[in-house]
Design goal:
- The protein has two domains: about 80 residues, Alpha-Beta Plaits; about 90 residues, ACT domain (Alpha-Beta Plaits, 2-Layer Sandwich), CATH 3.30.70.260.
- The protein is globular.
- The protein is an alpha+beta fold.
- Helix 1 runs antiparallel to helix 2 and helix 3 runs antiparallel to helix 4.
- Strand 2 and strand 3 form a beta hairpin.
- The strands form two sheets. Strands 2-3-1-4 form a four-stranded antiparallel sheet, with helices on one face. A four-stranded antiparallel sheet has the order 6-7-5-8.
- It contains five helices and eight strands; from the N terminus they run βαββαββαββαβα.
- Helices cover about 30% and strands about 35% of the residues.
């Protein structure tokens, strides 16, 4: 397996994903996973790509940089770490932690420190800060995998205490419940 992770960053505009996908297709690459988002006005995309054995990373990087130069995009490619060496989590349950509150420095740092201290893995994080003191304007949604063998009551207590210290409302729900409640 010759897998790489490809990151593309720059000012958002139409056609970025199409340009990347076309170069990869023309080089006989297979896109296995994609995560792409817009952060304010900036595009951020990550692709897991399986390369044909003969394709050199330097050639792929050159082709992508040439294709994306007129869009002023930044390209980073690195070999994907051996799957067996990757973080191996214990038995976990998926949860969603949502916080709302006034904008201030340290919100992500404070909540993520508690999450990390219990060995809980953040699998996805969405944070939207519109500024100011309006409660609903500043929202963070952490998707996490909580190990089944931790003291969940202590974890929830510490999260609630940190949220209160940061003037945040906090909700902790199993992902299945969150998805059922928030289904459109």
């Amino acid at each position: 397996m010759n897998k790489v992770i490809l990151s593309v960053l720059g000012h958002d505009r139409p056609g970025i994903v199409a340009a990347v996908a076309r170069v990869l297709f023309e080089q006989h690459c297979n896109i296995e996973n994609v995560s792409q988002t817009i952060l304010q006005t900036e595009f951020a995309g990550s692709f897991i790509v399986n390369l044909p054995p003969a394709l050199q990373l330097s050639k792929l990087r050159d082709l992508l940089e040439k294709e994306l130069a007129q869009m002023e995009m930044h390209v980073h490619i690195k070999p994907l770490a051996d799957q067996t060496a990757a973080f191996a989590s214990k038995a976990c349950e998926p949860f969603v932690i949502t916080t709302k509150g006034p904008d201030r420095k340290g919100l992500v740092a404070g909540i993520s420190a508690i999450i990390a201290s219990y060995g809980v893995n953040i699998t996805n994080l969405q944070a939207v800060f519109k500024g100011g003191d309006e409660h609903g304007n500043n929202i963070m949604i952490y998707e996490v995998d909580i190990p089944t063998d931790i003291d969940q009551n202590a974890f929830y207590r510490d999260l609630r205490e940190k949220a209160a210290a940061l003037a945040l409302d906090i909700s902790i729900q199993h992902r299945n419940i969150f998805e059922s409640i928030n289904r459109i």
